[in-house]
From TrEMBL:
Residues 10-24 have a biased composition (Low complexity). This is Aminodeoxychorismate lyase. Its cofactor is pyridoxal 5'-phosphate. Belongs to the class-IV pyridoxal-phosphate-dependent aminotransferase family. GO terms for molecular function: lyase activity. InterPro entries: Aminotrans_IV, Aminotrans_IV_CS, Aminotransferase-like, BCAT-like_C, BCAT-like_N, Class-IV_PLP-Dep_Aminotrnsfr. Gene3D superfamilies: 3.30.470.10, D-amino Acid Aminotransferase, subunit A, domain 2 (3.20.10.10). Residues 1-24 are annotated as: Disordered. Keywords: Lyase, Pyridoxal phosphate.
């Protein structure tokens, strides 16, 4: 069916260009100045984040209570920056930028994107000249749905790579993975690692429920240390344990987490059906929702 649709697309007459979508209502902090939706600051084209992806980033949610888990995100950004041998980001400056882009916002749900790069550098892989570039953006977005479908990637995560566990702006592999999911009419793609164990999604961590046990891949298997994953390991009875795709197919429930998805039950993984928000997933989601409302910066 997909092949026939593609054939139809290649033979059909060209359609009129799609209209340009309206710019979202966002606020940008760059170089100490705020910009609204109607203007965009300029970053040099020789910035190493643009030239070779030499940078790190964080994405976190905003609710009526404010941005969630800011300090944990800043700590992870510092770890990622150290892994890329970038100068340590100034947490006080980043916090001030977050406060600036969130000021007077009345969103029920939104996101903050923090991007930190090596700054201007050579047109190659040698170290950037600096100073680093910092951009913080806030914009409203839709709350995540309670359930999703996922598919398995045809590519493997390298759990031994230089960027393993680093939230790098070199995100092309994840862009490709998410495109693969959308082509399969799914919301997320799950990667296995080179050992054949389940690793992570393009931007999520994954959990399986087996009776009373809830397991998630350990960091040595290659997943990013997700912030939602981190707090759930502290707040709930969850263990870190390797498991294969075949083992996951026997799970009673499966759910994924991320800073912008919170806790989402999986209804289908490839051809395997799951209950979505089963009893244990509902329990975990409710606990996370309650605790994250009480503790905005846990």
């Amino acid at each position: 069916m997909l092949g026939s649709r593609l054939a139809d697309m290649t033979t059909a007459a060209p359609s009129a260009p799609a209209s340009t979508p309206a710019a979202p209502s966002r606020t940008i902090w760059f170089d100490g100045r705020l910009y609204g939706s109607e203007e965009t600051p300029s970053v040099p084209v020789t910035d190493h984040g643009f030239v070779v992806g030499d940078g790190v980033f964080e994405a976190l949610k905003i609710t009526a209570a404010g941005p969630f888990a800011v300090q944990r995100h800043l700590d992870r950004m510092s770890r990622s920056a150290a892994s890329l041998e970038l100068p340590a980001p100034d947490h006080a400056v980043v916090r001030a930028a977050i406060e600036a882009v969130c000021a007077d916002q009345a969103w029920d749900f939104g996101k903050i994107r923090i991007t930190y790069t090596g700054g201007v550098g050579p047109l190659g892989s040698a170290a950037a000249f600096g100073p680093p570039t910092l951009v913080v953006i806030a914009e409203p977005t839709d709350p995540p749905p309670p359930t999703v479908t996922v598919v398995t990637a045809p590519w493997r995560r390298n759990e031994h790579g230089a960027l393993t566990g680093v939230k790098s702006t070199s995100y092309g592999e994840n862009v490709r993975g998410l495109s693969f999911a959308h082509a399969k009419e799914a919301s997320e793609t799950i990667f296995l690692n080179t050992a054949g164990d389940v690793c992570e999604g393009t931007g999520t961590n994954i959990f399986c429920v087996f009776g009373d046990r809830i397991v998630t891949p350990p960091l040595l298997s290659g997943p990013l240390a997700g912030i939602t994953r981190e707090v759930l390991l502290e707040w709930c009875d969850i263990v870190e344990e390797d498991f294969t795709l075949a083992t996951a197919a026997e799970a009673d429930e499966v759910f994924i987490t991320s800073s912008l998805r919170d806790v989402q039950g999986v209804t289908r993984w490839d051809a395997v059906e799951y209950p979505g928000v089963g009893p244990r997933t509902a329990e975990i989601a409710a606990r996370f929702r309650a605790r994250s409302t009480e503790l905005v910066d846990p």
